[in-house]
Design brief:
The chain is α+β, with helices and mostly antiparallel strands and 174 residues long. It folds into two domains: 3-130, Ribosomal protein L10, N-terminal RNA-binding domain (Alpha-Beta Plaits, 2-Layer Sandwich), CATH 3.30.70; 131-174. It is 56% helix and 16% strand. The protein is built from six helices and five strands, in the order αβαβαβαββαα. It has a five-stranded antiparallel β-sheet. The radius of gyration is 26 Å and the shape is elongated. The relative contact order is 0.14.
């Protein structure tokens, strides 16, 4: 590959990295063509960009980015597939679901999520459990609504009790 071609590839990878806040590194070399196509389709449906890149070009593109990806450099050995997303747990869920129960491919190498680097297969379950921004917002809204719902419920039940007591008293007077 010519130096100009490499420079263009590095720039393209850098632009792609700049578009996403979450970077996962995986190894998909053991997948046959059919499984690779299935993984690409599943990634596309989940809003995940999947790219197979050369480690040297990826490292140079990461160096050119404003984000500090240096924690991922040790994982840039062997074939690397990039999984890029804006949702922290989406690629982890994709890997986990795609594997099924007994599979180990695609192999998880490392991830950069929320300014934190996760390296090694043992962190995959942790990454699956991370909540997305929308899930956290929904949890906060539910927590904020809970006390208000309790107060409204108590007021409504108290009003019904008061109405029942007044009705009983009015019947006794007659």
């Amino acid at each position: 590959m010519k130096k100009e071609d490499k420079t263009l590839m590095i720039d393209k990878i850098k632009e792609t990295l700049d578009q996403y806040s979450v970077v996962y590194l995986a190894n998909t070399t053991s997948l046959n063509a059919e499984k690779t196509v299935d993984l690409r389709r599943a990634a596309f449906k989940a809003g995940i960009k999947m790219m197979v890149v050369k480690n040297t070009l990826l490292k140079k593109a990461m160096d050119a980015c404003d984000v500090d990806y240096s924690g991922l450099y040790d994982s840039l050995a062997g074939p690397t597939t990039l999984l890029l997303s804006d949702t922290g747990n989406a690629p982890a869920k994709l890997i986990k679901e795609f594997r099924g129960k007994k599979e180990t491919i695609p192999a998880f190498k490392a991830a950069y999520v929320e300014e934190t680097v996760y390296v090694g297969e043992q962190n995959l379950d942790t990454l699956v459990a991370i909540k997305s921004k929308n899930e956290l917002i929904a949890d906060v809204v539910a927590l904020l609504q809970s006390p208000a719902k309790s107060v409204i419920s108590a007021l409504q039940s108290g009003g019904n009790k008061l109405h029942g007591v007044l009705e009983t008293l009015s019947k006794k007077e007659n």
